[in-house]
Amino acid sequence: MKILNDPRYFILLFLLSFTMAGQLLLGFFQDWTDVLASVVTAVVLELIIVGFRYKTWKSPLSALITGLGIGLLLSSHLTWPYILTSVLAIGIKHALRIDRNHIFNPNNVAMVIMLFFLPQYAVSTPKQWTNGWEIMFIILFFGFLAAYKAGRMDTVLAFASGYALFAGIRHWGLGEPFYYAFGPMLGAAFQLFTFFMITDPKTTPSGRNQRIWFGFAIALSDAILRVAEVNHSLFYASFLVTLLIGLPLRIWKVMNNSRQAE
């Protein structure tokens, strides 16, 4: 079945389940109206852009995933930041493209812009997530399944191993408290980032060795930013590595394919 072969459906199932659990059981910060605002904005804008640009109908599945992801990751007392973040995510996805594919993970680049330029209105608060074993098991199950279906388990393992390595260096080498260094790995927010943000097939390298170095580079960048006491380091690390490593690799691949086609 097509659904079983498309990792996006597993991501969507996770996001829907976690959104429902967060709203009904876990007392998430976001209100229903905030989640609905981000989802509706992402889906409607996707339909409008695709309709005008390609003159055709295309399922807004990716936009639905983007909207739900923003509804989980972003925290604000106001509704308009959720709308703006969705506009940025979908707009940049269609505006910045190479070989008909988007350059940055939509959720990541939109969150980086909001966190950097509008920190008084938008934050990402991992403390809102429960670290109960039941929720962690659900996240890990869907995460491994989605990453496996996307062919990005190597990226997940490289990033997680690299993060653990640098957490150990920060703890035993720099004296950072053990829980502060390793604690984020037990949080659902960290696992969501690991399995669903840095494993985007469109924005990660196609080669296995390149993906391994890509995941490790994100862990290294995150460690440097944490030592520098930069908030929301995971978002910035992923963005910087995509910009400085992922993008040049994709440009080189496109140019190489063009030369071979001549």
Topology:
Elements: H1 2-5, H2 7-26, H3 32-54, H4 61-73, H5 80-95, E1 97-98, E2 101-102, H6 106-117, H7 133-150, H8 153-173, H9 178-182, H10 188-196, H11 208-227, H12 233-261
Antiparallel strand pairs: 1-2
Helix pairs in contact: 2-4, 2-7, 3-4, 3-5, 4-5, 5-6, 6-12, 7-10, 8-11, 11-12
Overall 3D geometry?
globular
Q: What is the CA-based Rg, rounded?
A: 18 Å
> Kindly state the mean pLDDT as a whole number?
88
Number of helices: 12
For the largest beta sheet, what order do the strands appear in spatially? 1-2
What does this structure look like?
The chain is mainly α and 262 residues long. It has one domain. The protein has 12 helices and 2 strands; from the N terminus they run αααααββααααααα. It has a two-stranded antiparallel ribbon with strand order 1-2. The termini are far apart. The mean pLDDT is 88.
Name the descriptors:
262 residues; mainly alpha; globular
Structure summarized in a few sentences:
With 262 residues, this protein is mainly alpha-helical. Helices cover 73% and strands 2% of the residues. Strand 1 and strand 2 form a beta hairpin.
